[in-house]
Design brief:
The protein has eleven helices and 18 strands. Helix 5 runs antiparallel to helix 11. The relative contact order is 0.12. It is an alpha+beta fold and 400 residues long.
Length: 400
């Protein structure tokens, strides 16, 4: 799309007006929570959303029975996620200084929304005191007002991009869910055996099985950290895929002396907080005693097969956990649990099949946010083209 040719044709020689926000909108700042008429859930009586500052559902405070704003509006977050802009087509009750814009001139409100969305990261907010956006700070910001038919065409184009992004997200999400369900189904089928298969404990098929060590107290001693030795923690395992190749913390030589270095290929298994989260080390590493290390005996099994086993048996393992404040499973209990171990060739066959499912699911999981980000960039590119009107020299934005 050529900006000049398309927009010139669309404007057909008509000059674009620039107006201050308070000339275009009635600007309201949200007030206090209506405590006398407040519900945590939407009901037949309490069906007006109470909106505060925040993105998406995080802006929903509760429900009330009387709207403060009944017309379609634009909301701008005044605190926290300052500048975040949303289009509201239903009655609302704004609170906590949330800014609400309702048009007082002939205007396509969706057009104004797209423009305000384009500038939502450009507000100059004072750094002293509580960072916030106020009515006086936004009232003199100027907005281009092309003819109504031009506004409508811009909205049509930009809404099309938004709808396509939403449709693509829904399709990819549905496909990802289906693939995960299919993966879980086949994993369960492949790892369900009859009585002819031997059931063994992990200790029986391991060269080494034990908890990570950290003898030093206190754990927050700065001497432990900052060296070159990777330190794997529960959160790293939770966020990792089949093999972990990244880490967020390191041990010093002092820390290493208090712990144990596990070799590349070790299967890490969490036994506290999130029970039975697993990953395989892509490098030599230390980890704390809340994680079990499993080094496979290559004549009996592989780390990959055991990881798939534990994933399939995760619910059973979690059911054996104890503790009120934080669930955990001790090593002794874990060592007594038996798992099915067919012949090595059959284990390798199972791993090959599940690796393919895992690769497909991982690809979809990683591709979804990337695809959405690309569509958002495409929308922002065309939004910039469509909303870049020449500004009169007399127009200044005092808070942009």
């Amino acid at each position: 799309m050529s900006q000049l040719s398309y927009m010139d044709k669309l404007l057909d020689g008509v000059e674009v007006e620039w107006k201050k926000l308070d000339e275009v909108f009635d600007i309201l700042a949200g007030g206090d929570v209506p405590k006398e008429a407040l519900s945590d859930m939407e009901t037949e009586e309490f069906n007006i959303p109470i909106l505060s500052n925040g993105i998406g559902d995080r802006s929903l405070y509760g429900w009330t029975n009387k709207a403060k704003v009944v017309r379609p509006s634009i909301t701008i977050s005044a605190r926290g996620t300052i500048g975040w802009t949303s289009y509201r087509d239903k009655p609302i009750f704004p609170i906590v200084r949330l800014l609400v814009l309702t048009s007082k001139i002939e205007l396509n409100l969706k057009y104004a929304y797209h423009y305000m969305k384009a500038i939502e990261n450009n507000y100059n907010v004072p750094k002293n005191g509580i960072p916030q956006l106020t009515k006086p700070m936004v009232k003199d910001i100027v907005i281009p007002i092309p003819p109504i038919k031009v506004q409508a065409e811009i909205v049509r184009i930009l809404d099309t991009f938004t709808e396509l992004t939403a449709e693509l997200t829904a399709e990819l999400t549905a496909e990802l869910v289906a693939r995960k369900q299919q993966y879980a189904y086949y994993r369960k089928q492949l790892l369900t055996f009859d009585d002819e298969v031997e059931w063994k404990t992990l200790k029986e098929v391991a060269l080494e099985l034990g908890r990570g060590k950290s003898r030093h107290r206190p754990r927050n001693d700065p001497k432990l950290y900052g060296g070159d030795v990777p330190l794997i923690q529960t959160g790293d395992i939770r966020n990792a895929s089949h093999v972990i190749n990244e880490y967020t913390q390191t041990y010093s030589e002092f820390g290493l002396a208090q712990s144990k270095l596990w070799p590349k290929g070790t299967l890490c298994i969490t036994i506290a907080a999130n029970i039975a989260e697993t990953t395989i080390l892509g490098f030599d590493s230390c980890f704390p005693d809340s994680i079990i290390g499993f080094v496979a005996n290559p004549e009996k099994t592989t780390a990959s097969y055991v990881e798939y086993l534990l994933t399939s048996f995760k619910s059973e393992l979690q059911a054996k956990s104890t503790g009120s404040a934080q669930s955990n499973i001790n090593l002794a209990t874990f060592e007594r649990i038996k798992f099915p171990f067919p012949s090595l060739p059959e284990q390798e066959h199972i791993v090959t099949i599940l690796d393919k499912f895992d690769a497909l699911t991982t690809s979809l999981t990683e591709g979804l946010p990337r695809e959405i980000a690309l569509r958002q960039q495409q929308y922002e590119y065309y939004r910039e083209l469509l909303l870049s009107f020449p500004k009169l020299e007399t127009c200044t934005d005092t808070n942009l």
